[in-house]
Specification:
By secondary structure, the protein is of the alpha/beta class. The chain has three domains: 3-151, 3-Layer(aba) Sandwich (Rossmann fold), CATH 3.40.50.10140; 157-256, no CATH class; 266-324. The chain is built from 13 helices and seven strands. It has helices spanning 3-9, 24-36, 54-63, 74-78, 80-92, 110-115, 129-141, 159-180, 187-212, 218-244, 258-290, 293-309, 313-323, and strands spanning 13-18, 41-42, 65-72, 98-102, 122-123, 151-152, 155-156. The chain has a five-stranded parallel sheet, sandwiched between helices. A two-stranded antiparallel ribbon has the order 6-7. Strand 4, helix 6 (110-115) and strand 5 form a beta-alpha-beta unit. Helix 1 packs parallel to helix 3 (54-63) and helix 3 crosses helix 5. The radius of gyration is 23 Å and the shape is globular.
Amino acid sequence: MSIFARHISLMHYDVFISYSRLDSKIAERVCKALADVGLSYFIDRKGISAGVSFTEVVSKAIDESSVFLFLASASSYKSKFTTAEVFYAFKHKESGMILPYLLDNSPMPSELEFLLSTTNWLEMKGNPIESSLVDAIFNALSRPRDTVVDYIGGRKKPWLQICVLALVLCCAAVFALRYFWTPAVSHDADIAAFNSCIAASDSLLASAMMLKNQASTLETTDQQIQNLIEARQILSSADSLALLYKGTPDESFFNADVPSRRREVQAKLDSIFNSWVAFSRESYELYRLTGLETEAENALECIEHALLIKPDPEMEGIKIAIKL
């Protein structure tokens, strides 16, 4: 199994999105709608990396997804990849977990129509993505729509990050107890929370470095950024705990050198940010010189990744200039 496929095997997704590249704009609307309500998803935006088995990665992603969403259209009917995905889903999933969403009125090929005859079809016309489609997915999942699921870029977090979230909540609970219940709370809980924050941030940093050494994909890059951002947030929580005991006899229990850890995390985020800024500038200049739309798209994509890390007036300005 490839590194990329092993990485996917650690994930679980609410939705696998099968679509044609020609329907990318609609697919992105679907992604946004799912993310807005906390549903995780798998979508192959750029194609599988060179040297990685397409069938291995896609089949694993379908297996690890609860609902198979097929964006059915004239374009997807002509795609051998989407057809293969539908056939695989038909073989490995219950019909109630396969949802064809018809983007246009194009006649569906007979073999696909036969396979999907026992599923509940939904037409885009009269059934908006943000309401009807999302509701249908929640119904398939047997989950109320107000359920909140934590996600990264549309994917559920692996167990490590779920544990990290639990640790952050624990830290919040400790603070609440200190300020709203009684000042006599045992410092042992704070020490345990502090040590947990340090361990969690170190694990996230190690995970980010591991992702950096994997096959370079946009998904692993975004995951690396998110891990570093979370590590920074957790270290801030640890810092807050340490400040509570500054100047007390227990101060020595909170001396894990949080500032140096925060500097290391920030340095790595700054390095990634500077790389995306450089890529976006280069693509933008090429776009201005050549007028090629592909360079404009590349610049916009690089800008989005840079802005994941922090706001930047220059990047926002380039983004506006391209869209004018």
